[in-house]
Structures are given as structure tokens and as C-alpha cells.
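User: Good morning. I'm curious how phenylalanine would be positioned relative to this chain. Could you predict the structure with it bound?
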Amino acid sequence: MTEQIERLRKQIVEFKSETLRELEDFRIRILGRKGELTALFDNFKNVSAESKKEIGKLLNEIKTLAQEKLKKEKEYFDNHDAEAGSLISDRTLPATADGIGSRHPISMAKNEILEIFTRLGFTVADGPEVEDDWHVFTALNFPPNHPARDMQDTFFVERNPDILLRTHTSSIQVRVMEKQKPPVRVICPGRVFRNEAISARAHCIFHQVEGLYIDENVSFADMKQTLLYFAREMFGENTQIRLRPSFFPFTEPSAEMDVSCKICGGKGCNICKHTGWLEVLGCGMVDPNVLESCGIDSKKYTGFAFGMGVERLAMLKWQIKDLRLYFENDVRFLEQFETVVV
Ligand code: PHE
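Assistant: Good morning! Here's the predicted structure, ligand included:
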């Protein structure tokens, strides 16, 4: 018995726990209901009367030793983080909540644009990012020598002039027109690629949302009213719009739309460069050549189209000064857009 006690004493003295789990195992092994020390105490009744005094003293000593050891080891864990790799750390610590993620501002702006147009009866269409020349340029009335077809502006896949990364999501609209008879009312979100130097105002990858509406008797006035509704939903009910003549190969007439600057209310400020207006999108009546390329009778049907950059709209909405912030994914930037995601 004395031998067993001595062996146990040695074990207790030498014991060192790496993890709280090990410490708990140690407590159970020594002091638990079926533990070694408990077993020795149970055996105490068999000890001869003359040894009882000595053995009893030893047993009590060793019990105190084990208890003190446990206390000391526990204190260590209370003051230090449990070692890496431990199965359980201090179970009495209150839980630390993980940060809740948030939607990326580009997704938020895109979703808002899509919601506004789906309320007007538009449906969302998708298409490939790697496209062919027909869907990006030819069907959209781009002349063969148009600069957008140049290597400088467009990313081609393996120098094959027919396969390229889409430079706008108008290619989705071509695919929809080829498949669907009018009336057509679609909205096409997606990533687009242009060979541009990266700066605060430009990036070689960005996001667009383009829209297309084709039916009998669709007029420029319909387009203007639709875009006015969009601008007021997106930027506030007092927003004014202005259409300036412009040019796109696939629309005639074409226009660029400005919205009144909501920062200064049109009086002029840094954001709108003292003009009171901010450019937000390109639009126009679909060129009859485009309708014919896609197998739609241009004598019977007319339509309008528009396209906008999501990064740019988000910049205006939240006054973000540098486009590169969207792509760096610095949490300090992203968490400013934290909303309840349902
Ligand atoms: N596709 C044009 C662009 O990428 C935008 C646009 C779409 C303009 C539809 C007019 C009509 O800039």
C-alpha cells in the first residue's frame, strides 16, 4: 500500500497538463469516483490496525497534494489561453460572437437595380462571359473597323479574333432576342471586361446592368418615363433626369442620362464637379439593324435599351471615391455596408 501511495505521489508531482482536457482527465483518473486515490481510500478499511495511523496520514497528504496540483494547473489555464490544439478551452468563458458577414456593396447596388426593374415587369436574363464576336459586336451593328474591336480595348481569348471576353452585357440581350419573340422585357446583370489601365475611376473588370424593352409602338417617351422611375427609386423621389444626345452603334437615337446631384441638390459641389448633374447611364432606341440581325421585324416592332455600370452607381450612392476599394476587400471598407442579410 505504501508503495502504491508513493507511486501515485510521484505521478502527481510529475504531472503537467498541456490542455484543459488533459487536466480534466487527470482529475478523473486520480480523484474521480473510480479514481486511483479513491480506490486507495476504499482499501483503507483493510489496513491493519497498527498501520492505520501512518497510512491514513499518507493518504490525506497525497489527497491535498493532488488537490493543490489541480488548483495550480487550473490557475495557469485561467490566466493563459489554452494551448493550440486543445479539444476544449475554458468552458466557463463567455462565447465570443463571430462577426456577421455583409453583402458586398456591388451586390447591394446590383440587387437594388434589379428589384426596381423587376417591379416594372422586367425579367432577369443571364449569359456567358466568354462570348463570340457576333453577340458582342456584329449583331449589335458595330462596323468592322470600330475601335472597340481592337486588341487595345477588348480581351481576346488566345488571340482568336472570334472568341473574346464580353465588353458589355448587351450580348445577353442579343441572345434573348434570338430566342424570344416580342414583347421582350429583360434586365441583364453581369461582369464585363475591358482592356483599361486600373485607376480610381476605371478597372478592367466591372459590372453592368443593361435593359431591353421591345414591343409594338414602344417610344422614346416610354424609355424616358421608365428611366425617370428608376432614377427616383434609386436616388430619391426628388431626383431629376436629363438626357443628352450621344452615340452607340446599336441605338438610334442614343442618349446619356444624368441625374440631379443629390449631395448638393443641383446647386453644384465637388462630387458633381459643380455642374449639378451626374452621368449614370447610356440609352437609346434599338437600331432597326440590330432587330433585323436577331430576326425581329423592325417594321412591326420598336424598342429601347439602356446600360449602366454598377460600380459607378454604387460610387454615387455611397460617395465612394476610389473604384479600387471594391476589389481590395478590406474588411474595414466592407463592414461599413453591414446590413441584416435575410
Ligand atoms: N452597352 C453600352 C456600354 O457598354 C451601354 C448601353 C446599353 C448604351 C444600351 C445604350 C443602350 O456602354
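The chain has a mean pLDDT of 89. The two ends are 67 Å apart (CA to CA).
Let me know if you'd like a different ligand tried.
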